[in-house]
Write a structure and sequence with these properties.
Length: 558
């Protein structure tokens, strides 16, 4: 640890392991040391001195060193780069260097100028300096491509040197998680493979109803972070695309006015299913200037070797993101400017740390990798980097259990395991939950496609069976107080400066949450057989086609 970090650590308040008492039949039970230890971790990681744990900041480096020191203290082995605790991840942070960015939509008889942040949402470029990028346009429907689903929206269309114009999202006829996966990855990858220079997104009726244009476009001029590989080049899906932009419904109506289908007809057809593409009239020309800064931030990795001479070669991963969103850019005088991220995700990180403590005392048969990721808030980038540049052999990974923002202001009576219905991990979670007298509930909001939205998802794309756990909506009295607690947090505190230690945390519930996750990891790591995807599951078939599968257990066969 360098001198600057030591100085910052010394400035932090001493956080005592304050006794946390559970109430039983009106009387105080004995202090729960797990609850107290959990609280101490959250208090440290969410302290103002951390500055919101933004990547590339001293606060996040302090937090990473705190995690690494804990791993060392409980007896883990460094599993980062070259036998260290850290895997350094490099990013290019691109921001606009221009006062105003525009795109000209030249339709022959009509010429529209779209301004970024008004009628267009344009991303900064990958390269520094001023750019002018011009090309013809081709509408490619939803812009999806997946041979296993018989989907190829690019078939028969010439995209070379042109812009691919795509509808937002995916057809409602697809499973919501499959649709979210394809919408996130298939569009840029397929467009780049087809030779396109950029993506222009137009909105479906569903997207327009979900989010008013005026609200979404306010984020148009924010910086963008891109992973860099060891060679310093952009790493990720569709990195060869020069432009990514979305245009307003009014601009889309003008674009499609002289096309084979007008925009209203396209939106109406898209509401029913896939839409066949066609060439569009005119040219789209982007003018912008970009400044690029390089940032480095660490994943933190500790390995607990398994005790079985054979099974120790297999690794169970428990992951949680350590970063948060930093501080406000232009706070008012005296205003709280720090996004402390106590629930999101100091609580998940505390779970990871306490799991390391418990499991290290009695190692299971398989090895366990504890992974505190960076840059989750920038688009799962730390986990994505590890999945593409792993510090251990990916073939050794048999499962990932991911922890991200459990709602710990309520004594929860059930949990949700996103992805638990896709592999045998679901039955493991159910067994561990029963041991804690908890139920397991199905995804209460499948339309949100949460399975594709946290740090387990890059593991899924490497073929690793994975689950993402969250606290459920029911409380221990059988009511729905925990649903109300989650709603309150999401509406009032999520990604706000109020996500801090003075939230009404239930530290006894936090201890129960931690015991649940320890139980899940231990069951996976001690089981005779490694987790398997279920036969016919989309993700298992797509990303682990040759791996052994398990027959899906239906209610009738239980």
């Amino acid at each position: 640890m360098n001198k600057r970090l030591l100085t910052a650590l010394a400035a932090l308040p001493l956080i005592a392991a304050v006794p946390v008492h559970a109430q039983t039949a009106g009387r105080k039970a004995a202090p729960d040391p797990l609850a107290a230890s959990f609280r101490a971790h959250v208090a440290f990681l969410a302290d103002d001195t951390m500055g919101g744990r933004g990547i590339g900041t001293p606060g996040h480096e302090i937090a990473a060193n705190y995690v690494a020191q804990h791993f060392a203290r409980v007896g883990l082995t460094p599993a980062g780069d070259a036998g260290r605790w850290f895997q350094r991840v490099s990013f290019a942070e691109s921001r606009f260097a221009s006062e105003k960015e525009t795109a000209t939509l030249d339709l022959g008889s009509q010429r529209l100028v779209l301004e970024n942040g008004v009628s267009m949402a344009l991303s900064p470029g990958n390269e520094p300096g001023a750019e002018e990028i011009s090309g013809e346009m081709v509408f490619v429907g939803y812009g999806l491509q997946d041979p296993s689903q018989g989907i190829d929206d690019f078939a028969g269309l010439d995209l070379r040197g042109k812009y691919a114009v795509v509808l937002s999202g995916a057809p409602d006829t697809l499973n919501s998680e499959v649709a979210a996966h394809l919408a996130r990855n298939s569009k840029p990858m397929a467009a780049q493979a087809a030779g396109a220079i950029g993506l222009i997104t137009v909105r479906t009726l569903k997207e327009a109803a979900r989010l008013p244009w005026e609200k979404g476009v306010t984020r148009a001029r924010l910086p963008r972070r891109q992973l860099l590989g060891p060679d310093g080049k952009p790493l990720g899906d569709g990195t060869g695309l020069k432009v990514r932009a979305a245009i307003s419904d009014e601009a889309a109506a003008a674009l499609f006015a002289s096309a084979p289908m007008n925009f209203a007809a396209v939106q109406a057809a898209a509401a029913k299913g896939p839409v066949k593409g066609f060439a569009l009239p005119g040219r789209f020309t982007v003018r912008r200037a970009t400044a690029v800064e390089r940032i480095s931030s660490p994943n933190v990795l500790g390995l607990l070797p398994g005790r079985d001479p054979v099974l120790k070669d297999q690794i169970v991963v428990i992951s949680a993101h350590l970063d948060h969103v930093g501080t406000k850019a232009n706070p008012k005088p005296g205003e709280d400017a720090i996004f402390n991220g106590a629930m999101d995700n100091a609580s998940g990180s505390a779970t990871l740390l306490e799991a390391a403590t418990a499991l290290a005392k009695a190692p299971p048969k398989r090895s366990v990798l504890f992974l505190a990721t960076t840059a989750e808030e920038s688009g799962l980038l730390g986990a994505d980097y590890f999945s593409r540049q792993p510090t251990v052999d990916v073939k050794r990974l048999v499962a990932d259990v991911n922890i991200d923002m459990p709602i710990l202001t309520c004594d929860f009576g059930d949990v949700v395991a996103f992805g638990g219905d896709r592999s045998t991990l679901g039955s493991v979670v159910a067994a561990a939950a029963r041991a804690e007298k908890l139920g397991v509930s199905p995804d209460p909001q499948p339309e949100e496609a949460v399975f594709t939205r946290s740090d387990h998802y890059p593991f899924v794309r490497q073929g690793v069976p994975s689950v993402f756990l969250k606290t459920g909506w029911t409380d221990t009295r059988g009511g729905m107080a925990c649903k109300d607690a989650e709603r309150t947090f999401r509406l009032t505190h999520y990604h706000e400066v109020s996500d801090q230690l003075d939230l009404p945390f239930d530290w006894a519930a936090a201890a129960k949450w931690t015991r649940l996750n320890i139980g899940i990891i231990r069951r996976i790591a001690d089981a005779t057989a490694a987790p398997r995807w279920y036969e016919g599951d989309y993700f298992g078939t797509a990303f682990a086609p040759t791996a052994p599968k398990a027959p899906k257990i239906t209610a009738a066969r239980r």
